[in-house]
Amino acid sequence: MNFVHHRVVRAVLLLLASTAVIAQDADRPSLRERLRERIEQRREPASDASAAGTTEYSLRHGGLTRKYLLHVPVHRDPGKPLPLVIAFHGGGGHAAYMADDARYGWVGKADKEGFAVAFPNGYSKLPGGRFATWNAGQCCGDARDRNIDDVGFVRALVADVRRKLAIDPTRIFATGMSNGGMLSHRLACDAADLIRAVASVAGTDATNDCNPTRPVSVLHIHARDDTHVLFNGGAGKDAFRDPSKVFDFVSVPDTLARWAGRGHCSPNPRRILDTRGAYCEAYSGCEGGAKLQLCVTEEGGHSWPGAEQVRRGKAPASRAIDATDVIWAFFEAASR
After folding, report:
1. CA 121 to CA 141: how far, in whole Å?
2. Measured between alpha carbons, how far is 283 from 258 in angstroms, rounded to an integer?
3. d(C-alpha 55, C-alpha 73), whole Å
4. What's the gap between Cα 77 and its chain centre?
5. Does CATH number 3.40.50.360 belong to domain 46-334?
6. What are the pLDDT digits (tens) for 101-134?
């Protein structure tokens, strides 16, 4: 009887211990989820045989199913690894919106220049993935409030793409609009080992802290009359219906000053483009040969310069520069 009694007590204690562990880990992915992710990460790379065009893929990360679109260019050298651009939609958007050439032009640019482009979908509570946001640190929305691991998701996405395509690991770039641009800034801080250069449009630095492991080239593009992420700092009148979903945005000058300090660049930029309605400036002497540039349009509001279409109710996009052309030229220069 004593033997049976001891076995019962031991079983109860084990059950209580297991319950405590489950309660402690309630907000974390289950062991099964973590093992599933690890198995997927260790799969053998697939042959480089993906057809040209845009395809939707999904992967598991952080206990969530995350989706992205991958566009493989029409013209490519099968024996040469492709550069990869990761393009992040703005807050409240979704991957297919960012892949719309009339709004951003990345698919056409990829076909013309011969690089792959991935369009990830941010975190959304909706089954279709719309109205999604990114955790850029201090912004934005549910992705920030739930502390979604978007940096980890980007790492998992790149690994997944590299199982499908031969990607040049020294030419992986990130760009984005608004909240997506803020995530690009964060990747320059938290994934400097992975990302060669970033470019943000209308999304200033929203990081909580920033300690890049190596120099990363940074381009920032912004309109002076942006009514959402104000040029001189602050959230504009059309930032979000719920102010708690954003924060008091960092100004464009402060964003560039932060990067100049991090990269030990000269504090006084020189004008490299001066055209009607826009100008660009470049900082010199940055550590490790990294590049730091700013392009400013006088008009265009909270839109992608050069876009044929903008969201309903938004100001027409600036035609002074084409952001997609400027960004790709910057990425090419940064990788030489």
Report:
1. 14
2. 12
3. 12
4. 27
5. no
6. 999 999 999 999 999 999 999 999 999 999 999 9
Burial class (CB in 10 A: 0-12, 13-18, 19+), 313: exposed
CA distance 20 to 195: 40
Which strand ranges, in their side-by-side order, compose the sheet holding 197-201? 53-61, 64-72, 116-120, 82-88, 167-177, 197-201, 217-223, 292-297, 278-283, 270-275
Q: Taken in order 26, 30, 31, 34, is the CA torsion positive or negative?
A: negative
Instruction: Please give the span between the terminal C-alpha atoms of the chain, in angstroms, as a whole number.
Output: 78
DSSP per position, 274-324 = EETTEEEEEE-S-GGG--EEEEEESS--SS-TT-S---TTSPPPP-S--HH
Asked whether 168 and 79 are in contact (CB, 8 A), the reply is: no
CB 124 within 8 A of CB 92: no
Could you report the per-residue pLDDT of 32-64, keeping only the tens digit for each? Answer: 555 555 545 444 444 444 689 999 999 999 999
The DSSP code for 107 is H
Query: Can you say whether the dihedral through the CA atoms of 152, 158, 161, 162 is positive or negative?
Result: negative
Q: Do the strands 278-283 and 292-297 form a parallel or antiparallel pair, or are they unpaired? A: antiparallel
Angle at 180 between CA 178 and CA 184, to 5 degrees: 115
Closest by CA to 89, choosing from 184, 224, 208, is: 184
The alpha helices in 90-164, defined as continuous H runs, are 95-98, 106-113, 141-145, 150-164
The model's pTM is: 0.86
Q: Which of 225, 233, 232, 237 is nearest to 300 (CA)?
A: 225
Q: Is the peptide bond before 286 cis (omega within 30 degrees of 0)?
A: no
What does the CA dihedral 253, 258, 264, 266 come to, rounded to 10 degrees? 10
Report CA-CA distances (Å) from 292 to 84, 88, 259. 20, 20, 8
Rounded Cα distance between 50 and 46, Å, is 9
> Is residue 66 within a helix (H) or strand (E), and if so which, with residue range?
strand 64-72
Residues 6+ apart with CB under 8 A from 132: 89, 91, 92, 93, 94, 121, 122, 123, 124, 143
